[in-house]
Amino acid sequence: MPRDLTQEIHNLIERGRDRQLRLAVTGLSRAGKTAFLTSLVNQLRHAGIDARLDLLKPAREGRLLGAQRMSQPDLGIPRFPYDEALASLAGEPPRWPEPTRGISELRLKLRFKTRRARGLLGDTANLTLDLIDYPGEWLLDLPLLAHDFLGWSEAQLAAMGPERQRFAEPWRRAVAAHRPDEVVDETRLAELAGRYADNLRQAREAGFSHLQPGRFLLPGELEGAPVLQFFPLPGIAEADRRQLEALPAESLYKTLARRFRHYQQHVVKPFYREHFRRFDRQIVLVDVLGALNAGPERFEDLASALATLMQSFDYGKRSLLNRLFAPRIDRLAIAATKADHVTPDQHANLVALLESLLAEPLKDLRYADVPVRAFSLAAIRATENRQVESDGQRQPALRGHGLDDAPLLLYPGDVPARLPDAGFWQRQGFTFTAFRPPPADGGALPHIRMDAALDWLLGDKLR
Amino acid sequence: MPRDLTQEIHNLIERGRDRQLRLAVTGLSRAGKTAFLTSLVNQLRHAGIDARLDLLKPAREGRLLGAQRMSQPDLGIPRFPYDEALASLAGEPPRWPEPTRGISELRLKLRFKTRRARGLLGDTANLTLDLIDYPGEWLLDLPLLAHDFLGWSEAQLAAMGPERQRFAEPWRRAVAAHRPDEVVDETRLAELAGRYADNLRQAREAGFSHLQPGRFLLPGELEGAPVLQFFPLPGIAEADRRQLEALPAESLYKTLARRFRHYQQHVVKPFYREHFRRFDRQIVLVDVLGALNAGPERFEDLASALATLMQSFDYGKRSLLNRLFAPRIDRLAIAATKADHVTPDQHANLVALLESLLAEPLKDLRYADVPVRAFSLAAIRATENRQVESDGQRQPALRGHGLDDAPLLLYPGDVPARLPDAGFWQRQGFTFTAFRPPPADGGALPHIRMDAALDWLLGDKLR
Question: Which CATH number fits domain A3-137+280-380+439-461: 3.30.70, 2.70.70, 1.20.120, 3.40.50?
């Protein structure tokens, strides 16, 4: 009887502990968020049946019993379109799911056996897992909170490289016709703002990532609202601050500054306050291979965008974020996606390259004592490994189908293990070909190292 | 000196008074909101130049000097797309502007001379006019605040006529498979909700107007969110209330009731609290001619939709709205739009028919002492009046161009002066043809009685 009581108390404590986890998934557009989340839900739904999850310890130990979809807690947030994504993958021919354009979520209840001493299985327990998907572009707006309009304006204009300048030229010429003290009418202001947004859109089309303000590219219901119609003002500097602040409320400078503040207060902050602050764990997906494909200036740009994005996770005691929102993310994963698009011998290089790309932010994170781990993975594996003879030597190759459904057998090239130098770009470059997803068979989706990422992100919550 | 002082005090009082007006424009989709607002802005911009505004007293008296566009106060609300609408009207061939899909606003500053005794002109003064455009469908949700889920459910199912039932049939069959105490999984719930939304969409396509909940048809950023995924539950009645309320939180009944409450609190109420409450004046546009075209069941449906919509303006002391939000609308206009689509001899009938259509709500409004006036108007006049010989008699006719740009000369038929009876529908029916807008000449847009409506809505603020 006394032993049973101890056991019961132990069970009660177990049940009260670690029973909720909010796991957030982000990445810049085309990083593979939708495929990742679809596969994650799929693997957990197939756990204990046909999912291959050997690197997820509770699955390997046979303790993960399954996962059920539940009603999500936030009724006003779109549900992650899992069924639609599966339908798209099950098409003939199979297609990648439509990318999501804002925040969405999905709740799972995981059932597992707890672990006892000497490998014995304990009671059945549940983990409520909330999965949240949101655009990495929203995190690019964090630094905007640290500036006022004048500072932001200077910083934005200083950061434009030569190619970016080219996209900005038409806006630049138009805005040059106006002085900061001028009263610019509504129509003209909307036109100038339109040109600035066009410049951001063109830069994104051309493969640039580090674009601010993030909502200008995904406006949603704010389309056409003045809060998305501001822009940096060329030719103003910190030295002019006193004069600028003395301008009348209707002046161009004051109007833009007012909209900038509204953007900070009513667009950027609510995301951190209402969502980000509540995340427990986070995975950041990065399309490293895509950036290698796009050449040096865009690769640099991705590095700078990621450095900015990672600031949201670097909350040392004195950070802006910590002061404003007290976030609680206690574990972070970064992952190079689409690892199936290179041969397995290149995977180690892919992780090494991801770590070089994020070297500075990773230093800061380790200094701030945020546990972080890097992975390379394929959420939905689109290729098979083959060996081909070339010049009498056996070489690894990939087999799959292109986006046009034509069969492909190719060697996409070597991934550099560190940041590519000028020599790399001239010598070899890199061209990886996009594959379409594999035909669906109704079973668990094939993947590469999803189980390793899952083990890091939630394995410890399934003990 | 003393006379000057009196004058100065008088001027000060004048300036402090009536200097702001928030005028809201609404109507069910296709009622002509976008054309109305475009014309309204256009007429005021052209006041004192080439706009024909003889029925607007301050314009007739030469006191209205002009209107300038200003920055709108609500930075987070889309600006009404006036320039886009004008560009569309100025196309070759001219086209009606794209309809707006949510709330939008635009601010004008009107400059006018005040009126002194004996017709003398006084000082120059300004009126800040905020124009707000929003979907009439949002007002159809007001009654939803007076119900809980059980009451709403019963009322919705009771209100479906035979044709509406037909659209609802696939949803009805699907939902019949579930009991209120059942735990229905997320995927199935989303599927049932999708079928219910399909039924609303099909009914709207088929010309029905009285459809609830309104946001299911214009979801915006809530697309895919659980708050837009509920539906009435057949087979439950007030008599079962106690049993139903005792069901567990995960039951179908409790889940739907929770979403219904979220919809009330986070979708319906915020519109009334943040927007509606701040309107000073309101015009409701009604496409009476379109409803005559659509036949008896849809005409009835429009009448019932309008009766519901008008409840938002009937705030006697004890009304739900007054208790919740204390609105302040002090003057209301209702207008039958597209008056240019019938011959001028039918305009009196058009107003009479509009008043019959709204007979019950108008009684309530007059009882509640809300000043209201009915108009027939054409925001942008698309036709010219002609006389044609027919059987040796001169008959009025309309000349213009169809939506396919072909020239038209026709007599569209007689408008009944009262609610059409079965005889009318059998005997004659009604077919009005849609005209495209007139070619733009850069001047003020041609209209019918926009000036009369403006005089009622803001004439008294320009004294």
Answer: 3.40.50
